[in-house]
Structures are given as structure tokens and as C-alpha cells.
Give the backbone structure.
Amino acid sequence: KVRSDIQQLEAALESYSKNYQHQPRSLSELQSAGILSAIPLDPWKTPYLYDPQTGEVRSKKGKSGLVFHG
């Protein structure tokens, strides 16, 4: 679930960046722009963390420590 959610978020971030020529300041901007209908929560029901400076999206919890870079 985490991997597929983050892949979905990364694709949405890329689409946003292409449309607006910059990274969003927060994941909620993906929803405001109509790119995502809802922002997914990780399996522990917490929001994914997003760093607009680096484009990194990650899960705050979990043993895997999954971190992906957009």
C-alpha cells in the first residue's frame, strides 16, 4: 500500500509540476488543483510527509522506512 500510494503521489506531483511549472507547497494542492480526488493516508492512517524542497514523499511510520524521491 505505501509503495503504490507514494507512486500515485509522485505521478500527481509530476503532473502538477508540468502544469504549473513549480512544485506544490503541500500535497493538499494536488487535490485543490483537481489532480487527485483525495490525498491518501498511509496504512497507519497518518498523512504522508512531503518536502517541497526535495520532492521527497515518505511514510512517517513503519518498519520499512520507505522513502521515495520525486
